[in-house]
């Protein structure tokens, strides 16, 4: 498989592979019916690559997005974007979790996460099985480190939008 990143939302220095099957806009809207700020970018990302894995290390540094963190690097590793399943296809990916499966597994953990999932959905994770969520009310990207807490009130905002999140994923510190 080629190591060239073909997703226009991601930096060329990250290696992003193993995308799932092609989607249509209708297929995306069927699984993600919510209208949220940045949904157009989310749709374009998933039309380009339906999920996938960072097969070499990839990070988001919160301080690149929010100056309030100053010199604190705050790296968070990213492993994959969940794929959106195709309704008529029961086959699953060998590389990524489906967005539906990721949502369902978290909703079962606690009542608080079930309530959190009413206004947020997970779309990516890291090697420690921690999730990145899109807030459907604001479009912000949130991260929950389950090793620290399963309380969604402890989620941190890592990007103001989906496109900012993608734009700031890096293979190494710049």
Explain how this protein is built:
- There is one protein chain.
- This protein has 174 residues and is of the alpha+beta class.
- The chain has 6 helices and 10 strands; from the N terminus they run E-H-H-E-E-H-E-E-H-H-E-E-E-E-H-E.
- The strands form 2 sheets. Strands 1-2-5-6-7-8-9 form a 7-stranded antiparallel beta sheet. A 3-stranded antiparallel beta sheet has the order 4-3-10.
- A hairpin with a 5-residue loop joins strand 7 and strand 8.
- About 3% of the residues have low confidence.
Strand content: 15-25%
Derived from helix and strand composition plus strand pairing, the structural class reads alpha+beta
Low-confidence stretches: 67-72
Number of domains: 1
Mean pLDDT over the full residue set: 83
Strands in their spatial order, largest beta sheet: 1-2-5-6-7-8-9
Distance between the termini: 27 Å
Q: Specify the biggest β-sheet.
A: 7 strands, antiparallel
Report Rg.
15 Å
Instruction: Figure out the total of helices.
Output: 6
**Helix-strand string:** EHHEEHEEHHEEEEHE
Shape from CA axes?
A: globular
What is the helical fraction, as a range of percent?
A: 10-25%
Question: What's the total count of β strands?
Answer: 10
